[in-house]
Prior knowledge:
The complex is a heterodimer. In chain A, strand 8 (84-91) and strand 9 form a beta hairpin. In chain A, strands 1, 3, 4, 8, 9 and 10 form a six-stranded mixed sheet that branches. Helices cover 0% and strands 48% of the residues of chain A. Chain A is mainly beta. Chain B is mainly beta. In chain B, strand 7 (65-68) and strand 8 form a beta hairpin. Chain B is globular. The N and C termini of chain B lie far apart (33 Å). Classes of the chains: A mainly beta, B mainly beta. At the A-B interface, strand 4, strand 8 and strand 9 of A face strand 4, strand 5 and strand 10 of B.
Amino acid sequence: LAKTTQPISMDSYEGQEVNITCSHNNIATNDYITWYQQFPSQGPRFIIQGYKTKVTNEVASLFIPADRKSSTLSLPRVSLSDTAVYYCLVGDSYTGGFKTIFGAGTRLFVKA
Amino acid sequence: GAGVSQSPRYKVAKRGQDVALRCDPISGHVSLFWYQQALGQGPEFLTYFQNEAQLDKSGLPSDRFFAERPEGSVSTLKIQRTQQEDSAVYLCASSRTPAGDTEAFFGQGTRLTVV
């Protein structure tokens, strides 16, 4: 099964760029990499998804090296409201099932 | 509605009681997922539906857990003879296409407490 590893927590200050790296050594050829954000008492919310190279949207960038064994979520100029848990998710297709595996998540704390 | 709706938001059950948790996905979404999230942990996959077909139920922790989506829209997760270890937030998510390549939209979850 494709397993992900992320740092447990990170601290940052408002206005800084934050990079969270996720390791997924056993990623399958057909798997996409997706990042979600979760606030307390809410369901996860989609941030960005990619397959390879670089993807950018209005809130984040996702960098994926050629071997796809890791990915880095980049949040430009974070604010206090970006304090949340960030999950790296890899779609599991090894067994032909549709199970998607969340990592343990990275707790980002943004300070003023 | 505009998003995934789950009900109830909170449920307290006595140990041994049966519970039913409801998920209203976004209209027209093909895929529907159920997850269990323990306090301080990431969501754990329970089961997956593609329309009305339950294609993966490998994450259901025991035969006390049962999920259905009879008409390919609303889904119900049923837990029989609840135990304290079933206490968790149960999340439902839907996506427009079959799993893997599109964004999944999550509901706010149902917090189940078994006493």
